[in-house]
Design a protein that fits this description.
- By secondary structure, this protein is of the alpha+beta class.
- The protein contains 10 helices and 24 strands.
- The strands form 6 sheets. A 6-stranded mixed sheet has the order 7-8-9-3-10-11, sandwiched between helices. A 5-stranded antiparallel sheet has the order 2-1-4-5-6, with helices on one face.
- The radius of gyration is 26 Å and the shape is globular.
C-alpha cells in the first residue's frame, strides 16, 4: 500500500516541508528532537492540519488543499476517526478509568456481540488473558503497550503510526518491548510508520528510512543502503557517524582530508560533488609497525571506558602539525566535559578529535599488544558526503 505525503506547515522555529512517497510496509522516520517527526505523523493522522499539502493512503485522499493559484478541486480534510489510521502515542494514551477490555472496545462499531468477539480475539492475540478487568494503572509498561496496540488493531487500520514508542523506557525494557512489538506486527499487512531519534530502533524496525533535519528530508531510501551511504553530512551524523572532515579533491582517486591532515589514495573514484568525508568510529583498523598509505598516527588525547566498549579520542595530524608550526603545546588531554568529535580548545589550541570506538571483544588484542602505532582507513567504509 502506497503512502504519499506532501506536508507544509509553519512552525515556531522552522517551516515543515516534507514530501515523500513509499510502498514499504515498515517506514522509519529518523531525526533529532524537535525536527518535525511527530508533527509529520500528527498531520497524517489528522491531529494537526497542515497549511497546505496532500496526504494519500492506498489511493484514498485524506487531506488536500489544492494547488495554490488555481481553482482547486473540492478540498479534503477527513476527520481523524474517518482516516482509518491508528496512532500509538508515546504514553499509550489509555483511558485510565476504563478496564483493558473497555479500552480495546473503545471506538469499535457493530453490535455488542460483535464487539465482545473482537475484544476476545485481541486479548488472545496480544497475550492479555487474565488482565481484562484491570485498569491501566495496574499494568506494566509492556502490558500497557500491548493494550494500546490491541485497541488500534481491533478496528484494522490501513496504517499504524508509532510516535517514539520506546523513548521513556530503560534499556532492558526497551529491548524487550521492541522485540515484542515486531513480533505482534508480523502478520499485520498494513503500513507502519515509526518516528524515533534513535538510529538503532529505526535500523532494526524499518525497510525504508526517511531522515529529517529542521523540517526537511535530507536523505531517504532503503534502510541498509542509506546507513551504508548516507549521502549528506547531516544524514551521516543522524545515522551515527562521528568523524567528519572537509576535503579537497586532488584527482579522481586522491583526496585531502583537511581537518585531519591526511591524504587518502583510493581505488574507488572520489565523487566530484563531495565536499566532506565521513568515517564511522568503529571502522578504523589498528596497525602496529610501519606507516603505509591511508593511515593516521595514533596520538591519544583522551579515552572513556564504557560497559561494552572503550572510546579513544585521537588528535588529528593537522593538530600536531599546527602545534609544531606555532610552538603552542598540545597538552596531555582534552579537558573533562569537552565535546567529543567537535572543535574544542585544549591549552589554547584548537583540537578536533577523531573518534575510535573499540568493542569489548576486540579490547583483548589491545591488552596483549598495547596501543597501535597507527589507525588505518578501510576504503570501503569511507563516506563521501555533500
Amino acid at each position: 500500500m502506497a503512502v504519499s505525503a506532501d506536508i507544509c506547515k509553519e512552525l515556531d522555529s522552522f517551516r515543515l516541508d516534507i514530501h515523500f512517497r513509499s510502498s514499504a510496509r515498515r517506514i522509519g522516520i529518523l531525526g533529532a528532537s524537535g525536527c518535525g517527526k511527530s508533527m509529520t505523523l500528527k498531520s497524517i493522522a489528522g491531529i494537526v492540519t497542515p497549511d497546505e499539502g496532500h496526504i494519500e493512503i492506498g489511493g484514498r485522499v485524506l487531506f488536500d488543499t489544492g494547488k495554490p493559484g488555481k481553482k482547486a478541486a473540492k478540498r479534503v480534510n477527513l476527520k481523524p476517526r474517518m482516516r482509518n489510521v491508528g496512532y500509538l502515542f508515546q504514553n499509550y494514551a489509555l483511558f485510565p478509568t476504563m478496564t483493558v477490555e473497555q479500552n480495546i472496545a473503545a471506538g469499535l462499531k457493530g453490535s455488542r456481540r460483535e464487539k465482545e468477539k473482537r475484544v476476545r480475539q485481541m486479548v488472545e492475540k496480544f497475550r492479555l488473558e487474565g488482565l481484562e478487568k484491570r485498569l491501566p494503572g495496574r499494568l506494566s509498561g509492556g502490558q500497557q503497550q500491548r493494550v494500546a496496540l490491541a485497541r488500534i488493531m481491533a478496528y484494522e487500520p490501513e496504517v499504524i503510526l508509532l510516535d517514539e514508542p520506546f523513548s521513556a523506557l530503560d534499556m532492558f525494557l526497551k529491548d524487550q518491548l521492541q522485540r515484542e512489538l515486531m513480533e505482534m506486527l508480523e502478520d499485520y499487512r498494513g503500513t507502519v510508520i515509526m518516528v524515533s531519534h534513535n538510529r538503532d530502533e529505526i535500523y532494526r524496525f524499518s525497510e525504508e528510512v526517511i531522515v529529517i533535519d529542521s523540517g526537511k528530508i535530507v536523505a531517504a531510501g532503503p534502510t541498509e543502503e542509506l546507513f551504508k551511504n548516507p549521502v549528506s553530512r547531516e544524514a551521516a551524523r543522524l545515522t551515527g557517524c562521528k568523524n567528519f572532515s572537509r576535503i579537497v579533491r586532488v584527482d579522481a582517486h586522491t583526496v585531502q582530508a583537511s581537518d585531519w591532515g591526511v591524504t587518502l589514495e583510493l581505488d574507488r573514484e572520489v565523487p566530484e560533488d563531495a565536499s566532506w568525508i565521513g568515517y564511522r568510529a568503529h571502522d578504523f583498523i589498528p596497525v602496529w609497525g610501519e606507516r603505509e598509505k591511508n593511515m593516521i598516527p595514533f596520538d591519544l588525547a583522551d579515552s572513556a571506558a564504557l560497559p561494552f566498549e572503550r572510546n579513544y579520542y585521537i588528535r588529528p595530524e593537522s593538530a600536531r602539525d599546527d602545534a609544531i608550526r606555532t610552538g603552542v603545546p598540545r597538552g596531555d588531554a582534552i579537558p573533562a566535559g569537552a565535546p567529543r568529535g567537535d572543535a574544542v580548545r585544549a591549552n589554547g589550541l584548537r583540537s578536533d578529535v577523531i573518534c575510535w570506538f573499540v568493542q569489548r571483544e576486540e579490547l583483548q588484542v589491545l591488552e596483549e599488544r598495547g596501543m597501535p602505532d597507527y589507525l588505518a582507513f578501510d576504503e570501503d567504509a569511507v563516506l563521501f558526503l555533500q
